[in-house]
Specification:
heterodimer; A: alpha+beta; Uridine Diphospho-n-acetylenolpyruvylglucosamine Reductase, domain 3; 2 domains; 5-stranded antiparallel sheet; 4-stranded antiparallel sheet; 12 helices; B: alpha+beta; 8-stranded antiparallel sheet; 19 strands; about 40% helix
Chain lengths: ~375, ~500
């Protein structure tokens, strides 16, 4: 996640031909080196900055610790399409996993953003970000079934499992999801996967932003095969996924014109859409989906059926946080911060205390990504 | 010995007396139960093999009262067990002899249904089905549907991360809850999650879901409501072998179909259910599958045709399609009444709850049949086939000396088998008091210690539901299932038995 300059490279030589890697997945168990690195860090009380493909280094606060890469810990450990479960080592390339799934007409349901060519499964789970399908199918955490982690105590622990229903013990696999490596180093992860939809179309409807929010919410209250809804530049885009018969009926109900949506949704998922270009600070506002347009200056792109709003703005953090607080949401300073500011929405006192105690429970010496999420953690 | 008993009894009476005095300062008389006859109804939950009368039971009806109860218990170092409807199947709400039973039954109001945001904000004592009923006017419903949904409450559902027959497609409780308000054992009110789809910081909402009342007292829940599918139809397919039925399940999923419900029953369960509700099940089948597809009419018709073809190709000896809502209900009636149906043919039954990778089904059922034979106890199997959640029902007679113990031993063996094939000891019923020993099989000492550390972060004094869900290492050592790494016992300082 942090710049790997002068880092301890645990991975073998990077593959010269990416495509070849996709055909024969690298199978390399680097857990012994990772355990050793953690134990050394505990002994020397030297904090570590954990990264995978190093594509999401911008996400979160900066942590001035020794970089350590999990990118060399690779390989799909098991995948049985009829079980809908895939288990892979944390350093396994997301692109590789998606291509293996695609061979069996399946996909990672939460469309995790890669934000670069070398994104890993571990990075996706540690960051916990989800793509456009999220409001209708579920988030990263909804599909995480089990993890093996190295805690800040230097222990290798396994939580959850490879089955869809499992209530033995606290749900630490989901707690790890989105915890930005501050509670443990992910070693392997089991995720639930789903069949790819038979058909997918995108409809475009002219709507001003306020009306678009209302329409997205109204449609979500009806039994329609929605799989994404976004509003930008006076257009409401609706993606439908499912059987051809379901889509035909839904298209008649919703109206609008059919457009080629594949680059649009890919652009929103990967932030390659023109909206995300340029240096202007980018904020992520996570709000109740039916919230009317929030009065803040800047450019707006609404995703997740109204629940995730991207804002390009020069407005000051306190102004943004206050506005979002008022509607019961939270704001993340996504890109364009200096890594020293608070990136994530400040936690209330009681919650922060609990976060500190949980950090203490997993990483008492604060050697795992200290300060990456909140300064205190 | 007798003297010691008397002293303990007197001690308990003192404790009870002190508690009642303290509780009376903020609770009305009728909200405090301390007489044996009043406490008796609270002595067990759905796992009636375990019974214990609490020291005191309280029925507060305001948040302030709940907070005050926790304060008193903290001051008097008295453990607290929270109870919803008491339908849990793992003894999670089993009272403690020296503890307070905190019933949230009076928190039974639906606070708000928001049809635009598609959410319901409810108190923890609201029944699962009541939420869906209240959402009917808006064409919405609450998806998780545990079989006890008429009676079980949402607070308990969150505490147990309850499932149901539709969770393959629509998720478990953890996938359908947006916000939980809880009171910590230290008396602090915390809001986990929120009206947005995620919250800053760690995913505490996921952590509290399924935490079996050990981390906090859930006092309000906001759930997601989904639009009701336009229509649904059920296919009923019979098979000569369990393996063939299992292969059909895999084939349906391999063809990209995620049915709304996908259930299997073995011959013993089929016959019991047919005797009880006359659902029209073929009693000579080794296994039946119930496959429900939902969506709009055209989509359902397409998928029904697809599934019918798959079932035939997988060797189904008979395939029937529900032609009306009444028939759909009848097909489901057998499955939904499988537990009471088994209850009719045996004085007692014990319901297990393991999950396995589905490909291991034949192996697990074969081994279960062998175990059943060697223990001399019949087993009927119902199976949430889509997601691998197996419910073996062990038939026994509690009045026969030693039979419950043998049943528990057999049940334990079946759960250990689930772990052995890569599954888990509990899919949806929770660990409670029932599966503590099997937790020692599924997790090693370091993992259990990590669980205890999480508990300590939420509840430093160990006030909430102590002794449930996560076994002590001491207990695991006694059970003899402690994982030993590299020939070394963890924590050599502890005594072993």
């Amino acid at each position: 996640m942090n710049a790997p300059t002068g880092s301890r490279h645990l991975d073998a030589e990077p593959p010269k031909d990416q495509r070849q890697t996709l055909v024969s997945p690298a199978d390399n168990d680097a857990s012994a080196q990772l355990i050793e690195a953690i134990q050394e860090a505990i002994r020397d009380r030297k904090p570590l900055a954990i990264y995978g493909g190093n594509n999401k280094a911008f996400y979160g606060r900066r942590t001035d610790s020794t970089p350590i890469s999990a990118a060399g810990h690779t390989g799909i450990l098991s995948y049985d399409p009829t079980e809908l479960v895939l288990t892979a080592r944390a350093g396994t390339s997301l692109a590789l996993i998606e291509s293996v799934l695609a061979e069996h007409l399946q996909l990672i349901p939460f469309e995790p953003p890669n934000f670069g060519p070398t994104a890993t499964l571990g990075g996706a789970i540690a960051c916990g970000l989800s793509g456009p399908r999220r409001p209708y199918v579920g988030a990263t955490r909804d599909f995480v079934l089990g993890v093996t982690v190295l805690t800040g105590r230097g222990q290798r622990l396994r939580f959850g499992g490879q089955v869809m229903k499992n209530v033995a013990g606290y749900d630490i696999a989901r707690l790890m999801t989105g915890s930005l490596g501050t509670l443990g180093v992910l070693l392997d992860i089991s995720v639930k996967v789903l069949p790819a939809p038979q058909t997918e179309i995108t409809l475009a409807l002219e709507r001003d932003t306020e009306t678009a929010i209302q329409t997205m919410n109204a449609l979500a209250g009806r039994p329609l095969p929605l799989s994404a809804a976004c509003a930008y530049g006076g257009i409401l885009y609706i993606r439908l996924s499912g059987t051809p018969s379901a889509i035909t009926t839904a298209r008649e109900t919703i109206g609008g014109t059919t457009v080629d949506g594949s680059s649009l949704w890919q652009g929103i998922r990967e932030h390659t859409h023109p909206f995300f270009a340029g240096p202007r600070p980018l904020w992520r506002l996570s709000v109740p989906s039916a919230t009317p347009v929030i009065d803040l200056p800047g450019a707006l792109l609404i995703d997740w059926g109204g629940a995730q709003r991207w804002l390009r703005t020069d407005a000051k953090a306190p102004v943004i946080r206050k506005a979002v607080d008022r509607v019961g949401g939270h704001a993340t300073f996504f890109r364009g911060h200096d890594g020293r500011d608070e990136v994530f929405h400040p936690l209330k006192t009681g919650l922060l205390r609990l976060h500190r105690r949980l950090k203490e429970a997993f990483d008492p010496q604060r050697i795992l990504n200290p300060g990456r999420m909140y300064e205190e953690l | 010995m007798h003297q010691a008993d008397t002293a303990a009894h007197q001690n308990a009476e003192h404790q009870r007396h002190d508690l009642v005095i303290a509780l009376r300062t903020f609770l009305p008389e009728n909200a405090i139960l301390s007489e044996e006859e009043d406490l008796r109804p609270y002595e067990c939950d759905g796992l009636s093999a375990y019974r214990q009368v609490p020291l005191v039971a309280v029925l507060p009806d305001t948040l302030e009262q709940v907070q005050q109860c926790l304060r008193v218990c903290r001051e008097q170092r008295t453990p607290v067990v929270v109870r919803g409807a008491g339908t849990g199947l793992s003894g999670g709400a089993l009272p403690l002899s020296d503890g307070v039973l905190l019933s949230l039954a009076k928190f039974n109001r639906i606070l708000n249904i928001d049809p635009v945001a598609r959410t319901a904000r409810v108190q923890p004592g609201v029944r699962n089905l009541a939420i869906s009923e209240a959402a009917v006017p808006f064409g919405l419903y609450y998806a998780p549907d545990p079989s006890s949904q008429i009676a079980c409450t949402i607070g308990g559902n969150v505490a147990e991360n309850s499932g149901g027959v539709h969770c393959l497609k629509y998720g478990l409780t953890v996938h359908n809850v947006l916000e939980v308000k809880m009171i910590t054992s230290e008396g602090e009110t915390l809001t986990l999650g929120g009206g947005a789809l995620d919250a800053p910081g760690y995913d505490l909402l996921a952590l509290i879901t399924g935490s079996e009342g050990l981390l906090g007292v859930i006092v309000e829940v906001t759930v997601k409501l989904l639009p009701k599918p336009e229509c649904a139809q059920v296919l009923l397919a019979a098979f000569h072998t369990v393996e063939a039925a299992g292969a059909a399940v895999a084939a349906i999923i391999a063809n990209g179909i995620i049915p709304g419900g996908l259930e299997m029953m073995d011959n013993a369960a089929i016959r019991a259910a047919e005797d009880f509700v006359q659902a029209g099940y073929p009693t000579d089948a080794a296994a039946i599958l119930l496959c429900e597809v939902d969506g709009n009419a055209a989509e359902v018709a397409d998928q029904v045709a697809q599934v019918e073809a798959i079932l035939a190709a997988c060797g189904a000896t008979q395939v029937r399609l529900s032609r009306s809502e009444a028939e759909r209900a009848r097909f489901w009636a057998g499955r939904k009444n499988a537990f009471p149906a088994v209850g009719r043919i045996s004085p007692d039954y014990y319901c297990m709850d393991g999950t396995i990778p589905r490909r291991e089904l034949a192996r697990v059922l074969t081994r279960t049949a062998e175990l059943s034979k060697s223990y001399g106890l019949a087993v009927a199997n119902v199976f949430h086939a889509g997601d691998g959640n197996l419910h073996p029902l062990i038939l026994y007679d509690a009045n026969r000396p030693g039979e419950l113990e043998r049943t528990e031993e057999l049940g334990g063996k079946i759960l250990e088998l689930c772990v052995e094939v890569g599954g888990t000891i509990t899919g949806e019923h929770g660990v409670g008091i029932e599966k503590l020993n099997q937790m020692c099989v599924q997790f090693n000492a370091d993992e259990l210690n990590q669980f205890h550390a999480v508990k300590h972060a939420f509840d430093p004094d160990g006030l909430l539901n102590p002794g449930k869900a996560i076994p002590t290492l001491h207990r695991c050592a006694e059970f003899g299932a402690m994982h030993v790494h590299h020939g070394q016992l963890p924590h050599p300082e502890l005594e072993r038995f």
